[in-house]
Every structure is written in structure tokens, then in C-alpha cells.
Amino acid sequence: MTIQTIKTTPYDDQKPGTSGLRKRVTVYAQPNYVENYIQSIFDSLDGFAGETLVIGGDGRYYNDVVIQKAIRIAAANGFGRVLVGQGGLLSTPAASHVIRHHKAFGGLVLSASHNPGGPDGDFGLKYNIGNGGPAPEKITDAVFARSKVIDSYKTVDTPDIALGQIGTQHVGDMVVEVIDPVADYAALMATLFDFDAIRALFAGGFRMTFDAMNAITGPYAHVLLEDTLGAPKGTVVNGTPSPDFGGGHPDPNLVYCKDMHDLLMTADGPDFGAASDGDGDRNLIIGKNRFVTPSDSLALLAANASLAPGYAGGIAGIARSMPTSAAADRVAEKLGIEMHETPTGWKFFGNLLDAGRVTICGEESAGTGSNHVREKDGLWAVLLWLNILAVRKQSVDQIVREHWATYGRNYYTRHDYEEVDAAIAGKLVDDLRAQLPALPGKSFGEDLQVAYADDFTYLDPIDGSTSAKQGIRIGFTDGSRIVVRLSGTGTVGATLRVYLERYEAADGRHDLDTQLALEPLIALAEELSGIKKRTGREAPSVIT
Ligand code: G6P
Ligand code: ZN
């Protein structure tokens, strides 16, 4: 095998964000952009000679080009074996499982998650470590540092790998195994859930719709829901992955899944609706006449997890990202288990999961998962919901209402202001931060008294590392909260996120309209931050 060393010049913008390096395809298509980044990743790692690397992506536009480059660069850098999903496909949670199951050194996950695809859309590359989870900041910082000074990369001159063909091929001295992207993952799911109970649920006439959004979960959902669990054909819609997601926006929220939501709100609609995003790690859960917020879903899944065989022995603890509502905290308290609050980003759960301190994790951004992999997992959440529904033999709405009657309800919403001028957004957050020391003890309106106000700093209890400036929190004596932070996943300008939460006790009112219930907090957030005034926006771009 002749290794070629190709001269290159660095780019200054290859800084990984919340979840890998996400850029427009047009940025990724610049000369050597991909090569520089992959070489920078390999240059930041030690000890992979002869080891296995997993490669796969969500099938978006440019996936096929980047996979071939990645395989060649991996061969030239001395990996012994690459496992790649057939067609270059692997959902993000499946990639995590394949890394763990086959004891790989790490993996390259090609995805920009829920961002639109196509030639004018986004692309992304993320490195995951041997535990199957996203690389910690120590590594991503090193990759960025390396990318700023890189002057060459290594590759080999070989024909393309036939990605359609399952089996073994060679690139120089390196073995490439093209694997079925679904098989290992489906086998894992069978160990966690009561498939017989879910089969009986479908056999009894339970109706579901699953929207794969023309993205990666289509093949997985067809195999699991229809072929294995007996849901009627047609349960899975938009089930064929397409490079531009059928021209859609593969983000399973109430904006992009509005039709499904509306269907679930009709009397003769299905009993259960779910969706997953571009790379299969997010989930949307809607029961008949009941949308379940991601924060509530986390709390409900944690409270009911022991109904599934994989969690029958109970769960060790729960973790949630800081902006996620405190609904899960009440479940942890009742179960007498650990509760952890981490910064936004799934990578922060990795250490807690590896140490066995927590079993279930979740984020307000539609991610839930467990210790079965080291990514959030959309279909896992759907299957756990199905398992719970099959055992409890109640509707989603009944289960949610009983939960609130037991634990109280955390009214919760997020207001996003997208593509805001980055300088204005940065200044706004700085000014808000400057107000924080004066806020504790102050009262606003009749019953909002500030209990604490800070910029969240996380101390990782496992490795002792700290992550500062993770979002501004203003907490009130009644359990209400305003959180403001800048998104780490946007690709154009800045996205400001305002998270609002109010607690209503178990015997309180649980049937208020969410936006109305949170109105005083929404107004106060504007009063303190001046988002509308400073950005000239009249309303948020997205309300979830
Ligand atoms: C991705 C990450 C999540 C994160 C979400 C929103 O999905 O995997 O961990 O919560 O993006 O992040 P952002 O920084 O845009 O709020
Ligand atoms: Zn995703």
C-alpha cells in the first residue's frame, strides 16, 4: 500500500460545536476541507494502529463522498479495519452500538442531525470514542487546535469501496467490512423490551403512525415495528432515506410534524404517533389528544422504565441537561436515586453512564436514551413507550395525567430566535450575565421572587473537569425558571434559546394552556433580556 502525503493549508473554522462539526455542504465541499478535519481528528488520537473504526451516516447529501475519503484516510493512517453500514448508512444510536458491540477504537458519524440536507443544506462530522459516545471536550479542543495548523494529510490511491455490497473488501492493508446497518441494533432492542407484549398490543388493534421523515430511521422502523412487532404495513411513513430528506426539514417537532400532530388530535386518528430526526437520535411522542413534551417524556420513561425487561431491576439514576425541566428530578427523588444536571450536549452524559451512576438520560431538545448506547436514541424511546403502553394498558393521555397527579406538572416551553446577528446575540447574553449578581432576592409581579441567578458551571463528578458559561439560569422561589443560552448547533448567525418553566403541584391545575400558564415568565424574560427590542423580532422563530 502506497501512502500519499498531500500538502494542505488549514481552515480556521473547524471548531466542533455541541455535536460535531456542522457546516453548510458548500463549506464542506471546499478543497481538502473534509481531509483536513478527518486528519486533524486522527492526529488528536493515540494508539489506533491496527484497530477498528466504525463509519456511517444518515445518508444525507455528501455522505457518499465523505465516506470514501474517510475510508482512504483511515487506511493511510494505519487503522486495521473499518466497519461501514451498507449504503454508508448508520443511525447515530446504531453507530454507537456498533462501536461498543464490536469493540471498535471509535467511529466517524456523518450527520447534521435534524438540519436540512441537500446541496444547499448542512453536513456534519462527529468523532465518537470507544464507549460509543461523542468525544469529550478534551479531544474536540485538540482537534480544533490541530485543524488550525495542519499542513498535510495522508491518503491512499484506491478505487471506491462498493458500499452496496455486504461483506469484506480491502483498501490497501486495511479490511473494510460492509455490514447490515439494522441487524446489530435490532438485536439489542430485543434484549431490552418485551416484544411479545408489544406484538400483543398491535394484534389487539392498537394503531400507530411513525414518521421517519425520509431519513435514517426508515429502515430500522420497517424492520422493528412492521416486520418484527407486527404493526400493519403503512405504520411507518416517509420510510425511505433520501439525500435531501424529500426536501423536508427532518426535525421531529410540532412545526415539522404538524400534520401528524393534527391527525392525533382527531377522534378517529391513531392511538400513538412518533417521529425521529435526520440521524435517528431524537424522538417526538404524541398520544391521542396528548402531546408529550420531551421533558415530561424523560420523567415518564424514568418512572415506568422497570416495566421493560432491560430495566426490570430498577434504574441507578437519571441525568438531564440543565435547560430540561425539573420533572425528572421529582421522579428521582421518589425513587431515591441519583439525579444529575449537565450542560446541553449528550457528551456530558457519557462519564455518568460509564460509571454506572445513571441509567436514563434526556434533554428538552427531544432526546432520551439509556445506558444501552452512548447516544440519545429515537427508536429506543418509541419502543420503551410501546412497552409501557402494552403493560399498563392505558392511553398515553391517562398515563400522563396520572403522572402529573402523582408528581405535579412542570409547565414548560422553549422560545427560539434563529439566525440572529451573532454580535447582537453575544452582547445580549453578556448584558444579561452582568445583571445576575443583583437579581437574587428581587421580586417581580406578585409571586416571582428570584432565588438564584447564575451562569451554569458544570463540575463533572467523575473526572473532575469543569465546563463554564453553559447558560444563564434565573430560578424563583416557587420552582419556576428562566434559562437563556446560545445554541451550539446552528450553522448561520446565532440562535437564542429562552427556556421557561413553572411548577404546579400534584393537586394543582394541570389543564392550562402552556403559553398562558407561562405568560408572566415570558414577559419577565423579555423585560430582563430585551430580546425582541434588540433583535427587532416580533415573535420567536420556533416555539416548542
Ligand atoms: C443536539 C445535541 C443535543 C442538544 C441539541 C440542542 O441534538 O446532540 O445534546 O441538546 O443538539 O443543542 P443546542 O446547542 O442547539 O441547544
Ligand atoms: Zn439528531
TrEMBL record:
Classification lineage: Bacteria, Pseudomonadati, Pseudomonadota, Alphaproteobacteria, Hyphomicrobiales
One Gene Ontology term of the molecular function aspect: magnesium ion binding
Pfam families from the UniProt entry: PGM1_C_vert_fung, PGM_PMM_I, PGM_PMM_II, PGM_PMM_III
Any Gene Ontology biological process: carbohydrate metabolic process
Keyword Cell wall biogenesis/degradation: no
InterPro entries: A-D-PHexomutase_a/b/a-I (IPR005844), A-D-PHexomutase_a/b/a-I/II/III (IPR016055), A-D-PHexomutase_a/b/a-II (IPR005845), A-D-PHexomutase_a/b/a-III (IPR005846), A-D-PHexomutase_C_sf (IPR036900), A-D-PHexomutase_CS (IPR016066), Alpha-D-phosphohexomutase_SF (IPR005841), PGM (IPR045244)
PANTHER family: PHOSPHOGLUCOMUTASE (PTHR22573:SF2), PHOSPHOHEXOMUTASE FAMILY MEMBER (PTHR22573)
Boundaries of every Alpha-D-phosphohexomutase alpha/beta/alpha domain copy: 14-152, 184-286, 295-407
Protein name (database record): phosphoglucomutase (alpha-D-glucose-1,6-bisphosphate-dependent)
Catalytic reactions of this protein: alpha-D-glucose 1-phosphate = alpha-D-glucose 6-phosphate
Tree of life domain: Bacteria
KW Membrane (keyword) present: no
Taxonomic source organism: Devosia epidermidihirudinis
Entry keyword set: Isomerase, Magnesium, Metal-binding, Phosphoprotein
Obligatory cofactor(s): Mg(2+)
EC number: 5.4.2.2
Enzyme class of the recorded protein, top EC level: isomerase
Family: Belongs to the phosphohexose mutase family.
PROSITE patterns the record matches: PGM_PMM
Entry GO terms, CC: cytosol
